[in-house]
């Protein structure tokens, strides 16, 4: 069995009173990428699971964790994988999927034997993993760099020029509830997800990467009129409750992977906040 840490759900009333350390303990996931070890964070928000794996010296198997009470990990779950490192392989019940830098794989419910490896342990793959409960088996699908839907958002004038890439969304691959994509902030811009939004129907997790050394991203969370911030470093993730905004401003440009789960599969279903009404 793999190891895991549990994160419980908090109410907006409770979070109003959290100090810096409490906010970090509840929502921040430090050091997501683990070498030769799969260690999950199991969130009680929509039972969303997060892990990061860097296979260096050996192949790593996807194993169940105790709270699933399932004989194998994907018995009642689906899994999204985005490789932010060098080339690696994901072997799924005898079929090998090669994932290059920024390529992704969707694995549906029911797959039993899943094994991760790097092509070259000295230039390893870095697999970022999100998993959600599933009720139906959909086919496994690799999403290569040319399969993603790309949209340009924001502008240099408002310091939020960015490229959003949709990898695991229902117009690209059939899924039960998982949605994943990647957003890259253009040089000179700093803001992601501004204007901010909430979607009380879905929770979300952001994994910040390509944050230059000695730089940081200030991630904003909370109800739109009661915001808080969490300072984040490279390869750290943050859980966004369904009632919370999730937006960030970096001291340099950066990228992040967003993953969502909940009530519907409509990426554009967001309640946008007025910038000058944020508090
Ligand atoms: O920069 C953005 O805007 C985003 O990446 C927004 C996320 O995709 C999101 O929050 C989707 O709900
Ligand atoms: Zn969102």
UniProtKB/TrEMBL annotation:
Keyword annotations: Isomerase, Metal-binding, Zinc
Any GO MF annotation of the entry: 4-deoxy-L-threo-5-hexosulose-uronate ketol-isomerase activity
InterPro entries for this protein: KduI (IPR007045), KduI/IolB_isomerase (IPR021120), KduI_N (IPR027449), RmlC-like_jellyroll (IPR014710), RmlC_Cupin_sf (IPR011051)
Enzyme class: isomerase
HAMAP family membership: KduI
Physiological role: Catalyzes the isomerization of 5-dehydro-4-deoxy-D-glucuronate to 3-deoxy-D-glycero-2,5-hexodiulosonate.
Name assigned to this protein: 4-deoxy-L-threo-5-hexosulose-uronate ketol-isomerase
Organism classification: Bacteria, Pseudomonadati, Bacteroidota, Flavobacteriia, Flavobacteriales
């Amino acid at each position: 069995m793999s190891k895991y840490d549990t994160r419980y759900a908090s109410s907006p009333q409770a979070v109003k009173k959290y100090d810096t350390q409490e906010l970090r303990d509840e929502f921040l996931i430090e050091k997501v990428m683990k070498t030769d070890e799969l260690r999950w964070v199991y969130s009680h928000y929509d039972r969303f699971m997060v892990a990061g794996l860097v296979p260096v010296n050996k192949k790593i198997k996807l194993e169940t964790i105790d709270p699933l009470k399932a004989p194998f990990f994907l018995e009642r779950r689906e899994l999204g994988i985005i490789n932010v490192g060098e080339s690696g392989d994901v072997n799924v019940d005898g079929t090998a999927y090669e994932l290059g830098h920024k390529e992704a794989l969707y694995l549906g419910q029911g797959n039993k034997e899943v094994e991760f490896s790097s092509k070259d342990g000295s230039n390893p793959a870095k697999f970022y993993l999100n998993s959600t409960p599933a009720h139906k088996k959909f086919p496994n699908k690799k999403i290569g760099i040319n399969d993603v839907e790309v949209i340009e958002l924001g502008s240099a004038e408002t310091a939020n020029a960015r490229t959003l890439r949709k990898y695991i969304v229902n117009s690209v691959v059939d899924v039960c509830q998982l949605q994943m994509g990647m957003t890259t902030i253009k040089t000179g811009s700093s803001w992601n997800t501004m204007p901010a939004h909430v979607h009380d129907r879905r929770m979300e997790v952001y994994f910040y990467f390509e944050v230059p050394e000695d730089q940081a991203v200030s991630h904003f969370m909370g109800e739109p009129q009661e915001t808080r911030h969490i300072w984040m470093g490279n390869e750290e993730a943050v859980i966004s409750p369904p009632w919370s905004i999730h937006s960030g401003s970096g001291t340099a440009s950066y990228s992040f992977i967003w993953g969502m789960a909940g009530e519907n599969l409509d990426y554009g279903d967001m309640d946008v906040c007025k910038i000058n009404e944020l508090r």
